[in-house]
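Researcher: Good morning. I'm working through a list of sequences from a screen, and I'd like to move beyond sequence-only analysis. For each chain I'm collecting a predicted structure so we can compare shapes side by side. This is the next one on the list. No need for commentary yet; just the structure.
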Amino acid sequence: MHLRILEAQKNIRTGKREETVNSGKKPHVDETDSAQGLASQNSKNALQQEVLACKRKAVALKREGKLAEAREELRQAKLLEKSLEALKLRREGQVEEAEAEFELAKALEAQLDEMSSNDSGKSSVNIAEPVDVVVEDLLDPHLLSTLKAIGIEDTSIISQSSERPWPANVSATKSENNSQERTQFEERIKAVNLKRAGKQAEALDALRRAKLYEKKLNSL
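Model: Good morning. Structure tokens for this chain:
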């Protein structure tokens, strides 16, 4: 699964470098360009098939009563869809917007990895809730209908979710870290909401602020 995501992310980065190098050259079409275009289309088709496979698997898991696994497959499907959207924007020349999609996909992937790497004995509330908020906000109508079709309807509006009280910790240091993590997370939520409202520039600003908070947290 992650190989597909890494491949999509690599294509975004490679495409950006190629556009920079060739910016001063006249456009031309040759066999190499055709081959690259075909490879890109094949990669896109493969990712689309992977998305459909994840959704079908989610439905099958739900029928088996495995709700947690079904949710995970739906999250993975959405992560792949974000990578596909980034590739589409990059091909259209919207490099900055593609980078924003790429960052959102990375953020979602990191949260999924964090959730899966935690010990089963620990409470999953603090981790699962932020992941659900991001995933639910990124759900397109088709995927949301898929969720409801398999009986997963306990989603909430993101504005309500972002107002939920953040769990308090005994340690003052941990409390400060949690405050910064919450601020970072809220900036990411803001970026998503602004993007959905068509305010690309403001969404990118919010995403940059989130990245700054992330760097601060990493330096602690």
